[in-house]
Amino acid sequence: MSIAESSRVPVGDAPGVSAEGVSRRFGTVHAVEHIDFHAPPGKVTALIGPNGAGKTTLLLMLASLLRPDSGTIRINGLDPLHHSAAARLRIGWMPDTLGVWESLTAREILVQMARFYRLPRAGIAQRVAGLLELVRLDTLADQPARVLSRGQQQRLSLARALIHDPSVLLLDEPASGLDPGSRVELRNLLRRLAGEGKAVVVSSHVLSELDEIADGAVFVSQGRTVKQQTLEEAALQGRRYAITTLDNAALTAKLSELGLEYRVEAGRRPSVTLLLTHDDGAAALLGELVRSGIGVVSFAPAAGALEETYMNLDTERP
């Protein structure tokens, strides 16, 4: 089947990307064992789990680069095993390293990828220039990839994944090596791409940032799905807040008076942490502390909502 023919394969009734009962072993090692996964269009879905949980193996199978031993995968309703060319036209894959072609320039890499996807020749130069500007590599467009920093190579890898305007984006540790400013830009870009209707899947260890990017998450451990959760559901479960005041004794006395369980955390300036079930409760507590004359220096979540879920899961730690 040619690329042109594959693009006319009808899409099924399951938009986005999904996996059902997917397993993959390497010899005696069960890298992925009966994982269920779904990333809807128009949303950013985080893939979260400890090292060795099977995240990269799952992403490689979703990207049609690794065949599952069992289970089914659908990319916009297409089975990659039977419609591999059509499925790959819809997938943008960003691995955790740029990979080959380090002697080529950033521009040459993107031009070559555009040719692989058989983009109309007349529009390739404009498409490449636009993507280089999008990821802020336009001034380095004609530098060999090998001279780019780790963060710059990550931005080039993202541009490479976007070259054919895929409807599904699979990103493995996309923020790795990025400076704080570039992380913010990545977050805004992924939200924009999701807003355009793309299904965006992000695997990352930076859980605090996923709260600002993701609409939901799939948690995996030991090759299995252990929880699926929207960000709204994560926020409703409650999370731990950290409070620092000018008078820690007065703070702990007030919390005891209110019947709240807390934990004193050691540090240069001692703080107190406690679990609050919702944002309204946090606002009410802050107001009560201020009215009681307690000098509050800081009052904020000690962890993001998804990080709170992850830390409370009975998962195997790395």
Explain how this protein is built.
Strand 6 (168-172), helix 7 (180-195) and strand 7 (199-203) form a beta-alpha-beta unit. The protein is globular, with a radius of gyration of 23 Å. The strands form three sheets. It has a six-stranded mixed sheet, sandwiched between helices. The protein has a four-stranded antiparallel sheet with strand order 11-12-10-13. It has a three-stranded antiparallel sheet with strand order 2-1-4, covered by helices on one side. Helix 4 (106-116) packs across helix 5 (121-134). The chain has helices spanning 3-6, 55-62, 84-89, 106-116, 121-134, 150-162, 180-195, 207-213, 231-236, 248-257, 279-291, 305-312, and strands spanning 17-26, 29-39, 44-48, 70-75, 91-94, 168-172, 199-203, 216-221, 224-230, 239-245, 263-265, 271-276, 296-301. 36% of the residues lie in helices and 25% in strands. With 318 residues, the chain is of the alpha/beta class. The longest helix is centred in the middle third of the chain and has 16 residues, at 180-195.
What gap, in angstroms, lies between the N and C termini? 44 Å
Low-pLDDT stretches: 1-13
* Mass-distribution shape: globular
Q: Note the beta-strand portion.
A: 25-35%
Give me the Rg, rounded.
23 Å
Protein name: ABC-type multidrug transport system ATPase subunit
Domain ABC transporter: 17-247
Pfam families: ABC_tran
GO molecular function: ATP binding; ATP hydrolysis activity
